[in-house]
Amino acid sequence: MTQAVLITPEASALPEAGALVDARLAAGALVRVLAPLDKGAPGVEERRVGPGRLQTFRFPERELRRECAGGWCEVLLADPASARSWRAILTPAARCRFLGTPPAGDPRRDGGVWLPGEDGAWRVPGDASAPPRIRRAVVVGAGIAGAFTAYELARRGVAVDVIDRWGAPANGASALRAAIIHPHWQAADGPTSRLTRQGFGRMLNLLDDFPEAFDPCGVMDVAEDDAEWAKWCRAVEDGRPFPVPEDFARLTDRDAARGRTGLPLARGGWWFPKAGVVRPALLARRLLEASGARVLMGAEVRLTREDGLWRARFVRGGAVAAEAEAAVAASALDACAVLDAPADFFGLSPLYGRISLLRDTDFRDVRCAVTGHGYLVRTEEGFCGVGATYEQGTEPQITAVEAHDRNMEAFSRLLTDTPEALWGGYYAGVRAVARDRMPLAGPVTLPAELEGLTFRGRPELKDLPVTEGLWGLFGLGSRGLTWGRILAEHVAAEMTGEPTILPASLARAVAPARFAPVLSR
Ligand SMILES: Cc1cc2nc3c(=O)[nH]c(=O)nc-3n(C[C@H](O)[C@H](O)[C@H](O)COP(=O)(O)OP(=O)(O)OC[C@H]3O[C@@H](n4cnc5c(N)ncnc54)[C@H](O)[C@@H]3O)c2cc1C
After folding, report:
1. What are the residue boundaries of the FAD dependent oxidoreductase domain, all occurrences included (predicted)?
2. Domain 219-273+349-432 - what CATH class?
3. Fold observed for domain 136-172+281-345+436-520
4. Centroid of ligand 1 to alpha carbon of 401 (angstroms)
5. What are 312's strand-pairing partners?
6. For residue range 206-257, what is the model confidence (pLDDT) as tens digits?
């Protein structure tokens, strides 16, 4: 057993900006490690330090070692003397931040392991066999996934070409007028809620630099019915999956929820005070500008590997639009076509969706975004978006009037009285959704790598070969704005040989190779 102060969501109240960001990041992984530990169990002690801000635990090292294996996490060490035991647990890819004074002397002398990291953190150096840094990359897709990727690569010193077939960036699913971002809460914490929680934290951190693309109006997630409300109340009473800090989320009864939203809600819900509404197209443009990427629009391309380089070749004519040592497919549903892979290779399906655009003057009192079974969000153009439909395929499955009725019906279920509102049209887009609803982000394995390979049973992801110099970020589903940024950080870190920001279990959960058809004996 090692005594240490772990980052928990409470730590998001820490005053320094660096700690604020990193604390949110680490919360998901560490809370999950701690969650199964019954607080009353032998060996587990909980003690709050300061005004409810930090908790100290004694916990089994084994749990933490498993979760952090090869992944990224951060630990606050109360006691620098415990650095040696932490080094053994977290090597090779963890950062360590010391509360108070770092260990005396030069940490490099401590076995050469602790090295200064960014933001005053101390980083354990990565594996010496890590791939060399790349200098240039081609990104296919100028939606929000491509824009996040270009931005994160540029931050790591990589020059980027971004190519898209449309006339302007963010013309696919990312043309959405207003996207809600908020962490998801579930009594049984799973990969989806962990990734949205960590992704949301990273997104807020990014939006500090692009305030014009974000309305931090708060989001109310309304319970679907009385049974769901009762379930949420019980979970909060029991502290499941962990005690939620109030500045992160607050379970709010119906009257308080009505007061916050300005809507006649039928039930209470989770209030996410830091959540809000992003303007995806504006953000994508700003990220591309900030990245300094060379952006080529109106170019439909395929990626091919030739002479040790990735070439983006025009579909019509075959000329080379750009080439580089590395490539990223950020092309949503078209990832298979861009990479010339079989249609179901990445387990993606299209889910068409329509959002009804209502006259916003009919919702003068609405003060924030509301979500749940249906949702309502204010856009910049004088609309309130109410939605959204889920229609299988890339084309509408019902008429526009039926889609609108469906949206209004879902919205009405959140309310006791539905206000009369003038319908002004709709937004339509196609989500790219993976079979398990998790996104795909990381190194890509193409069919050529699997040819002639036979495995005993389903191989572990780490045993699958990857295609040299090729990464993907697609299948962002309905949450591209909430988790796209952290996934782009993951991809960019992997490409440049940095330790990834995702805990190992989440990196596996989003690995593009997880659906690859393999031959087994
Ligand atoms: C109705 C609806 C509501 C939604 N609401 C929310 C919400 O509230 N919050 C949220 O976070 N998310 C929401 N989403 C999801 C979000 O919009 C997506 O997750 C996100 O925009 C996906 O971004 P992307 O860059 O992966 O895809 P896209 O924006 O579709 O970008 C992919 C790009 O790749 C390009 N491309 C493809 N093939 C080629 C090729 N061969 N050559 C060149 N370029 C190519 C395309 O032209 C396109 O521009 C919603 C989606 C829909 C449809």
Report:
1. 137-493
2. alpha beta
3. FAD/NAD(P)-binding domain (3.50.50)
4. 24
5. 303, 322
6. 999 999 999 999 999 999 999 999 999 999 998 777 777 777 889 999 999 9
